[in-house]
């Protein structure tokens, strides 16, 4: 029997505390969805990095802007949306943190970690005008779940429309 | 685990014992403040003992890199000791594991300084 879809959505203030709050909420959802401890850690870390991205790069740490977090559980996967109220960005403009010239950079690893830890990852224009990160993890036992316990390496990207 | 950073001298080497989460906010700030204080005290042979650090995010990784380059810019050396599995895995996938000099026992780390 197909599982009923579940949806949770919260609006967070642009402050450091929202990073921990978002991570804790998503960890609870991931645990309830049946992910094991290691995968929960990866999901939690990805949400943390997504909210840090919204806090710092998207909203520029401006307290008058909000961070929109949503989680959906379908019968196949957990889908997480993190949306900021900034100017948006294109994935192709994000420097590769593994490139030799960037390896000693003190920032710029958040997107890389989300892509590494989740099964699907994309960035699209959000309804607020900012960026919306959409990332998902296949549920344990779902038809598309990796059988070796590792994250899939395929990443799907929806580039921002030029405005 | 509560966040902390203390340091002690082992010969001419300073060992910083850290615990808790090195993440955006207090954890990263504490690491930066500690290393800055050591450099202001002309301590440039530094080992960061991460045995009790059970979590680190991109902000914490960035702070470790900042500490590493700050010490090198003072002609010193900064090495890492006792990485937990999560921290080691993160440094490996970000290709920083080979950038840092990493040790699994303190005596070897201390004796590695020239």
Write up what this structure looks like:
The complex is a heterodimer of chains A (163) and B (114). Chain A has 163 residues and is α+β, with helices and mostly antiparallel strands. Chain A contains 3 helices and 5 strands. In chain A, strands 1-2-3-5-4 form a 5-stranded antiparallel beta sheet, with helices on one face. In chain A, helix 1 packs antiparallel against helix 2 (37-58) and helix 2 (37-58) packs antiparallel against helix 3. Chain A is globular, with a radius of gyration of 15 Å. The termini of chain A are far apart. Residues 152-163 of chain A have low confidence and may be disordered. Chain B contains 4 helices and 5 strands, in the order ββαβαβαβα. Chain B has helices at 26-40, 58-73, 85-93, 106-111, and strands at 4-10, 13-22, 45-56, 77-81, 101-103. A 5-stranded mixed beta sheet of chain B has the order 1-2-3-4-5. Chain B is globular, with a radius of gyration of 13 Å. Classes of the chains: A alpha+beta (163), B alpha/beta (114).
Unreliable segments of 5+ consecutive residues of chain B: none
| Total number of strands of chain B | 5
Mean pLDDT over the residues of chain A: 89
Helix content of chain B: 40-55%
Give the beta-strand count of chain A.
5
Rg for CA atoms of chain A = 15 Å
Architecture blueprint of SSEs:
The complex is a heterodimer of chains A (163) and B (114).
Chain A: E1 6-13, H1 16-32, H2 37-58, E2 66-73, E3 77-83, H3 110-117, E4 120-125, E5 131-138
Antiparallel strand pairs in A: 1-2, 2-3, 3-5, 4-5
Chain B: E1 4-10, E2 13-22, H1 26-40, E3 45-56, H2 58-73, E4 77-81, H3 85-93, E5 101-103, H4 106-111
Helix pairs in contact in B: 1-2
Can you give me a brief rundown of this structure?
The complex is a heterodimer of chains A (163) and B (114). With 163 residues, chain A is an alpha+beta fold.
What attributes does this structure have?
heterodimer, A: five-stranded antiparallel beta sheet, 3 helices, B: 114 residues, alpha/beta, five-stranded mixed beta sheet, 4 helices, 5 strands, 32% strand
């Amino acid at each position: 029997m197909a599982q009923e879809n579940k949806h949770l959505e919260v609006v967070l203030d642009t402050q450091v505390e929202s990073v921990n709050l978002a991570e804790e909420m998503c960890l609870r959802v991931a645990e309830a969805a049946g992910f094991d401890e290691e995968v929960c850690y990866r999901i939690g870390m990805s949400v943390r990095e997504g909210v840090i991205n919204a806090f710092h790069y998207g909203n520029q740490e401006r307290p008058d802007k909000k961070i929109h977090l949503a989680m959906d559980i379908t019968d196949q996967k957990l889908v997480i949306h993190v949306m900021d109220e900034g100017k948006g960005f294109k994935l192709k403009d994000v420097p590769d943190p593994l490139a030799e010239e960037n390896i000693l950079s003190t920032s710029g690893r958040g997107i890389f970690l989300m892509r590494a830890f989740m099964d699907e990852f994309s960035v699209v224009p959000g309804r607020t005008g900012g960026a919306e990160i959409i990332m998902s993890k296949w549920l344990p036992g779902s038809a598309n779940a990796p059988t070796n316990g590792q994250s899939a390496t395929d990443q799907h990207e929806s580039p921002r429309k030029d405005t | 685990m509560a966040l902390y950073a203390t340091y002690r001298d082992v010969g001419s080497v300073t060992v910083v014992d850290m615990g808790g989460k090195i993440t955006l906010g207090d954890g990263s700030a504490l690491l930066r403040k500690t290393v800055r204080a050591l450099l202001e005290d002309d301590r440039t042979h530094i080992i960061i003992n991460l045995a009790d650090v059970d979590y680190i995010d991109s902000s914490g990784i960035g702070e470790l890199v900042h500490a590493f380059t700050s010490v090198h810019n003072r002609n010193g050396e900064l090495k890492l000791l006792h990485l937990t599995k999560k921290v080691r895995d993160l440094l490996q996938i970000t290709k920083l594991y080979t950038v840092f000099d990493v040790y699994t026992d303190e005596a070897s780390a201390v004796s590695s300084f020239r």
